[in-house]
Amino acid sequence: MRKICVYAGSNLGNRDSYRLEAKKLGRIFAKKNIDLIYGGSKLGIMAEIANEVLKQGGNAIGIMPSGLFKGEIAHQGLSEFIETESMHERKALMNELSDGFIALPGGIGTFDELFEIICWAQIGIHNKPIGLLNVDEFFTPVLNLLNHAVKEGFMNENTLSLFVVSDDAAELIDLMGNFTAPVMQNKWKQLDGK
User: Fold this and answer.
1) CA–CA gap between residue 127 and residue 31 (Å, rounded)
2) In this predicted model, what pLDDT tens digit does every residue of 45-62 receive, in sequence order?
3) Other C-beta atoms within 10 Å of 159: how many?
4) Strand 100-103 to strand 80-84: parallel, antiparallel, or no bridges (unpaired)?
5) What domains lie within the chain, and their CATH numbers?
């Protein structure tokens, strides 16, 4: 993997561990010559990983719709900054440029991007590795929700194989490097046998 897209909060969150793990991931990216693709903000966990990548001599590429410039405050010191017309264009470009995806702790925007990229994998738009960095069990409630959706018959169990999870940044990168996309079952159970 040469370029990994990271989804992360535009706030720092309430635990130092979120910031520290983002920085650790940034150091790993720089050491392994992995370019960071991210939302382009100079705020929050997003900025923590970007700043660490840059500090260690790596490349950080920000992609931001022009409508977010005022709210998120575009990072001025990136290796490359790409302006898009819309959020949809931003997400499509992030997918196109990236060899894999990692979600760090964040809010609605992070969840939106994470679920969309998992959905895209489920329906065959891509077969790239997706990782959840489960810092202090941040994503455990999300994993419980997904398991509940399987139990209740709204999702096939092998959909859970579309992503890998670790609470350690180095292990997560290794898991993603060894990822093989699963052969998906029929998404629509009512069509089984037809």
Assistant:
1) 25
2) 999 999 999 999 999 999
3) 20
4) unpaired
5) 3-191 (3.40.50.450)
